[in-house]
Hints:
19 helices
Amino acid sequence: xxxxxxxxxxxxxxxxxxxxxxxxxxxxxxxxxxxxxxxxxxxxxxxxxxxxxxxxxxxxxxxxxxxxxxxxxxxxxxxxxxxxxxxxxxxxxxxxxxxxxxxxxxxxxxxxxxxxxxxxxxxxxxxxxxxxxxxxxxxxxxxxxxxxxxxxxxxxxxxxxxxxxxxxxxxxxxxxxxxxxxxxxxxxxxxxxxxxxxxxxxxxxxxxxxxxxxxxxxxxxxxxxxxxxxxxxxxxxxxxxxxxxxxxxxxxxxxxxxxxxxxxxxxxxxxxxxxxxxxxxxxxxxxxxxxxxxxxxxxxxxxxxxxxxxxxxxxxxxxxxxxxxxxxxxxxxxxxxxxxxxxxxxxxxxxxxxxxxxxxxxxxxxxxxxxxxxxxxxxxxxxxxxxxxxxxxxxxxxxxxxxxxxxxxxxxxxxxxxxxxxxxxxxxxxxxxxxxxxxxxxxxxxxxxxxxxxxxxxxxxxxxxx
Length: 466
């Protein structure tokens, strides 16, 4: 939602405000706020005002705005649009169970407390000393509203929603309406799961005498089986997962643009500025798009290859040292610092086939280890030729004055193919396996240049293939 909020703000010259909606203290997770800051910053979705950027509507944490909400609660009670409810949680659970058993067509709070004083309610079962405050939903509530993405919508009838909890914190429903009004929010952009709450929010705006904002309910991403993506079942539902998996922020941002919005002129690769320039709510998809990781992989590979070698090397180093320190330590021990130079030199070799930053360490592993492991399939395919080729290759390369990729290639072709009459396949397959441990690896001669003369000759002479 932040992506589309920011796009519309930039398109119209508005302000993008970051507000922390933390009124549900039972669900508060330590560090979650900082994670929001970090992920939005990583994605390049920079806000104009927020908890860390002072603005005219501060504070921007709802937990710091409790005194702001109470007068509006009192106003709603005084005007008869809200009332106190002293029902205990046990009583409410029993009520819901009974409604479920009876298979009632209309469920929700039964208004046991409505119209009663504290003393009157205390004489009845299921009483608790600390009340909540509920909205009094009128019988003639208007359930339809206009959405700029979906057109005319009709939502289900709500029950008497709690707007102030027993702990003194407002619920989302009251807090978001009050804050959106006070902060001058013109467009409420949120997921389609909030459609059912919109009639309640419209009532609050009307009761408090405020202008109702424009509603924009975005479709939810779906799994390949069209089911809703959930954090419990799909790790991709967490933004931090993409960072952990080594996706680039510009690729993910482009991907999310495509998920909710058709590309202009079928051009799938587009910058955020291009997205903003073409932005129109009427073009937003109304059907939940399928989350296609293959598309994201393709985009990520594209953006990786668009980076300059130095920039890509820097991102690889930062990623590995942040998310793969254990693997790096197990690989190199106390020599971890040595890997940076190798990684930087190997970038041109691995970039063409790199899909995520997470793959980089594995692709350069053979350049870092003291002894390369040969996979069984490769061993089987080259074992017959290895005993002939590897000693000859070592002999040819030992006499080179320069040990760069082109010189290595020329020497091996001349010495083994031209002079010895061996086929290129017979020559280079065993050498590749001896050097990299596999038949699939980054370019062979450039890899040998990075390894250097001594290490390359050592692998040719002491390969487990011999």
